[in-house]
Specification:
2 domains, elongated
Length: 126
């Protein structure tokens, strides 16, 4: 698993690439036009950074350069979640959930989803 750290903007760009790859620079500019208003040069600089981090590869064989993610979304999300838990909650999922519950941040649906996840994990451990 890669130890690549992504900025908030890079996460946004990677999410677009994970959903719609390969993408040209023009397609990425169009995708973010209304949401971020990032310029073509801003997106290009972020792509160059992601290439340097070995998170994205570029195919230059055609008329247009096409960008494709190298890292997998699932692996990157798990690694980032573990990093967040470690930094903010000392690695404790229970402390994080307790903190969110203490702030009334969990909806009834989220509580039901957590129960379901815990029940499923309990069944697997038996």
């Amino acid at each position: 698993m890669n130890n690549i750290t992504l900025s908030d903007g890079e996460w946004k760009l990677m999410n677009e690439l994970w959903e719609n790859h390969p993408c040209s620079l023009a397609q990425l500019v169009n995708a973010f036009e209304n949401d971020t208003r990032w310029s073509k040069s801003t997106i290009f600089v972020m792509l160059k950074r992601l290439i340097a981090k070995n998170a994205v590869k570029v195919d230059t064989s055609g008329r247009v350069q096409l960008y494709t993610p190298i890292i997998k979304k699932e692996e990157t999300t798990v690694r980032e979640t573990r990093s967040f838990l470690s930094r903010v909650y000392g690695g404790s999922i229970g402390l994080m959930v307790s903190s969110l519950a203490g702030q009334s941040s969990l909806s009834e649906n989220e509580i039901a989803e957590l129960r379901s996840i815990l029940d499923e994990m309990e069944k697997k451990e038996r």
